[in-house]
């Protein structure tokens, strides 16, 4: 689809070691040169004028802060319990 739109596609050889070890490439990199992806949860806003799209802004995802003051041990135990529940039930 990108080639049909006139975008030159070349392999990004610099990320191949990462791909062969982990079987994926961490954002913003991709397997292609000069083609990037957003981090999970990010939002991309474009402006369209005269049939041309331009990048307006990228909002990076910031997870909400917890109001919970529990210590890390209690939180870890709760996460393990929820994961076990999701797997076994």
List the keywords.
17% strand, alpha+beta, extended, 89 residues
Description:
The chain has 89 residues and is α+β, with helices and mostly antiparallel strands. 27% of the residues lie in helices and 17% in strands. The protein has helices at residues 16-22, 72-88; strands at 43-49, 52-59. A two-stranded antiparallel ribbon has the order 1-2. The mean pLDDT is 86.
Low-confidence stretches: none
Count every helix, treating DSSP H or I runs of 4 or more residues as helices: 2
Our measurement of the CA-to-CA distance between the termini, rounded to an integer number of angstroms, reads 42 Å
Strand content: 15-25%
Structural class: alpha+beta
The neighbouring-strand order within the major sheet is: 1-2
């Amino acid at each position: 689809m990108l080639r049909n739109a006139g975008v030159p596609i070349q392999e990004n050889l610099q990320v191949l070691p990462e791909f062969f070890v982990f079987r994926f490439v961490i954002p913003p990199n991709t397997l292609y040169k000069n083609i990037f992806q957003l981090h999970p949860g990010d939002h991309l806003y474009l402006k369209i004028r005269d049939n041309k799209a331009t990048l307006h802004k990228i909002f990076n995802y910031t997870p909400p802060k917890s109001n919970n003051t529990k210590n890390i041990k209690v939180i870890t135990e709760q996460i393990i319990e929820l994961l076990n529940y999701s797997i076994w039930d």
